[in-house]
From TrEMBL:
Gene (UniProt): ihfB
Record's compositionally biased regions (Basic and acidic residues): 82-91
Family listed: Belongs to the bacterial histone-like protein family.
InterPro entries: Hist_DNA-bd, Histone-like_DNA-bd_CS, IHF-like_DNA-bd_dom_sf, IHF_beta
Keyword annotations: DNA recombination, DNA-binding, Transcription, Transcription regulation, Translation regulation
Role description: This protein is one of the two subunits of integration host factor, a specific DNA-binding protein that functions in genetic recombination as well as in transcriptional and translational control.
Subunit structure: Heterodimer of an alpha and a beta chain.
Organism of provenance: Siccirubricoccus soli
Region (Disordered): 54-105
Protein name, UniProt field: Integration host factor subunit beta
Amino acid sequence: MTKSELIAQLAAENPHLRQPDIELIVATIFDEITAALARGDRVELRGFGAFSAKQRDPRTGRNPRTGAAVPVAGKSVPYFKPGKELRERVNGGEPQAPLRARAAE
């Protein structure tokens, strides 16, 4: 599912919201997750999973054409660890009500 498909599905499920508002909501959520990861924070969405940034150490790589050694700098990479509930639903576990329905209970 692409970002535009997500927005279209949310618009179809929520006809009381305008599409530009839904676009803003989705963009804001993604921007906040990105900003938190850039600060080195962890973002946990209960029942879905956790986003974090992992540090990769500097290493020596190889140029595939020449085989020459190339230094590769250390860097932070985004990492996602799915939650137990998400893993169960993806693997065909017991069907559960959508998260928003349970939140309303």
